[in-house]
Amino acid sequence: MAIYNALTYEIPDVLVSAVTFGIRVEVPLRNKLYSGIVTRVHQSKPDYRTKRIISVLDKDEIITSAQYELWLWLSSYYCCSLGEVMSVALPSGLKLSSETKLIFNPSGDINEMELSDDEYLVSEALSIQNELTIQLIQDILNKKTVYPVIRSLLEKRVLYIKEELIEKYKPKTIDIITLNKEYDSGQGNIQALDKVRRSELQTRALLAIFDIKRKQPFIKKIDVKNRADVDTQPINVLKNKGIITIEKKEVSRLVEDVDENTKDITLSALQKKSVDHIMAGDDTTDIHLLHGVTGSGKTSIYIELIKNVIATGGQVLYLLPEIALTSQIVQRLEAVFDKELLVYHSRVSNNDRVEIWREVIYKRHLVVGARSSVFLPFYNLKLIIVDEEHDASFKQDNPAPRYNARDTAAYLSRIYGAKVVLGSATPSIESFQNVRQKKYTYTHLAKRYGNINLPTMELVNLGKMLKTGRMTGSFSIILKDAIEDALEAGEQVLLFQNRRGYSPIIKCSLCGWAAECTNCDVSLTYHQHYNEMRCHYCGFKCAKPNKCAACGSDHVMLLGLGTEKIEEEVKELFPKVVVKRFDYDTVNTKRKYQDIIDKFEHKEIDILVGTQMISKGFDFDNISLVGVLNADALLNYPDFRSEERTFQLLTQVSGRAGRRSQQGRVIIQTFNPNHPVFQDVISYDIQRFYARELKNRNQYVYPPFYRLINVWFRHKKMDVLKDAASILYDDLSKKYKSRIGPPHDPPLVRVRGYYQQLIIIKIEKNNVTLRQLKVDLMATRSKVLELKPFRSVRIGIDVDPY
User: Fold this and answer.
1) Which among 82, 86, 161, 257 is least surrounded, fewest beta carbons within 10 Å?
2) Per residue in 490-508, pLDDT tens?
3) What distance in Å separates the CA atoms of residue 735 and residue 197, rounded to the nearest whole number?
4) Biggest alpha carbon distance in the chain?
5) Cα 87 from chain centroid?
6) Is there a contact between 443 and 288 (Cβ–Cβ < 8 Å)?
7) Phi-psi region of 552 (alpha: psi -120 to 50; beta: other; left: phi over 0)
8) Other CB atoms closer than 10 Å to residue 30's CB: what's the count?
């Protein structure tokens, strides 16, 4: 539960010595029990009646003073409560809440004839198990809403409620076998075997125990089962006969066997120079921008930097934009750093997160993770690597705090005195400007490792291709011929289309009706594999319409193209090759993702069709051709960063080609080949792109020259929404008139059933003015939400939107 302000509780005399900074305590709040973290012990009594702490949950602190300093900064900078920061920062296994338990009332006078079917099922289950949680009752009844049943049973005195604090984190345990003393010797072994001689299974199990004991410090029950090829029953018989003891032992979930087949890294002269430059540092800044073209060997530089830091006892945080898409990098780091490595991201289980949290405090030196890794309790952090620092995935949209992990890393470096290395082939405009202003030091790797040439780049004019009849479906004759040449040479191909599904629009050619989501103001995408329409914002699904919903005609057309349609066309054009699709529909689990990666790496896939997922983390030997089907779609988004993102994405996906022994080829199809962004991409002229983009940003008052704050309003009623937005705007504009724009409709007016309004604040880069604006904005937001008509309005503040 994310409360807005810290609360003061009274410490009972018996707990005074145990209550210290950073530990969790059990406290009552609103008739329930919660765990809270102690941030200060003081003698100042507040102006409200305090409640007592019930118990202490930890012996040692679970957060450090450095973490708490970071929380305070995030709360202040990103305009959110400290409770919201804590809610995101802590693993859910460390956040406890009161879970209602329902207790059977044995003294109740129950008349079963008065119970409904649902009430009888719950009553029967309670009489057997004595107590149930609400979740278990939902499972028993196969219903989500069970409160009416519970209320009725309470009124009939069948049950009563007990509030109990539930610890979510459960340590992992394994069964450990110990030979009892009288059988733990040569003569004892013989006696034990004599007791089980009539059972082959028991004998096999016992011999396995003897064998494992000679080789390992302790005997795992699972190892005995595997070695003897037996199930649990004969092992339990050995226990019953008094030969062995079986006990639970707490173990870490994090230790895994790592491939010992590692390779020493041989750095090029340019890479070694970069390492020396970064390690030497600069008197003015500890933040370094490593700008290296795709395939220049930035990861090798990171590994060398990590080795240097670990050798001196320091810790390293290696941030990746999307951990699920970077398995190759993780595997490479595992091979070098073995058990020093921890991986932390959203797909790690809750119990594993708790263990990683504790391991970081006391043991491990290297953490690789997504943006949430900045919240871990480091004890000696000395290096932070932000790989692909330009990537938008480092920015959190929801819930608050809406932080950017790249910028948070910069603040972390101040707290710990750590170096920060920002790496990218296409650095963000903000980072590039910081280099120009001498806030960051800079290293440029202009050549690929091994002097491999960058791929040749070619723009294909789709307009001309269509007019001259040189198109086959979505493929120009130039791209089609290039694919044929690559396949004949035994090489692999990547095809990029940044839309998943089969077709993004279904439309009536007579009246213009288009299929839209019932919850969002957005077109539904047709997915042929499922034969249904889907909304990529809220998940709404429906059958594909055969007739127009407006005029009833059957002139319904599928327009546009997604990865599914491209895959279909490729299979028609090249029926003898293996084609796979790589998007969130086909790799929605780690196993599916890894399966495609492995098959592509072993050349079992000839052509891979994918979204922007294929631009991240791929480093394969045999890709000679990258084709971009429709580059124009990347530019057609109403955002001031659309050209920057187009340049970055095209450059990144192009970099997948020709990364080893030969020069690759990239073909970009577009209706607008003269667009300056496309010209900059094919000429690798990043300096010209940055110069033009910085000029436009300055002219139109955008970052990096000004700070940007978006204020979002969401409500199910448009009139309520507009009134709330107008009140906040009117109040703030009195003081910040030239800096705040009026409420307006965003590109999507309605998402997930909620209407939206947006206020954009542009303010000069003056820390004093910015801090005061945030204070005023938070105060005005609170004032609006206190008004009765607007208590259900959602107002989100997004500082430095990305």
Assistant:
1) 257
2) 999 999 998 889 999 999 9
3) 91
4) 94
5) 16
6) yes
7) left
8) 8
